[in-house]
Task: inverse folding
């Protein structure tokens, strides 16, 4: 084998990027950018998903990313989020 590049696909044809699927990576990036724009950069500055202006699809992913161990998105006890 030479210097060929290989892309791994899941059973639905989705691209897998560094152990994570492309949709997951894109969605996490979108959500993080919106929390940054809302100024939610610390626990003291945490905001709701409404304040961060997350759309319905992003809201569906939010608990997944906020629940990931050592994830970038954190959730407070009163259901506010920050990065």
Result:
């Amino acid at each position: 084998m030479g210097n060929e590049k290989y892309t791994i696909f899941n059973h639905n044809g989705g691209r897998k990027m560094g152990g994570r699927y492309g949709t997951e990576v894109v969605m996490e990036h979108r959500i993080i950018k919106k929390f940054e724009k809302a100024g939610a950069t610390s626990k003291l500055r945490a905001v709701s998903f409404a304040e961060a202006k997350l759309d319905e699809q992003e809201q569906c992913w939010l608990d997944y990313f906020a629940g990931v161990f050592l994830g970038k998105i954190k959730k407070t006890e009163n259901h506010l989020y920050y990065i």
Notes: The beta strands are 8-9, 15-17, 20-21, 74-75, 81-82.
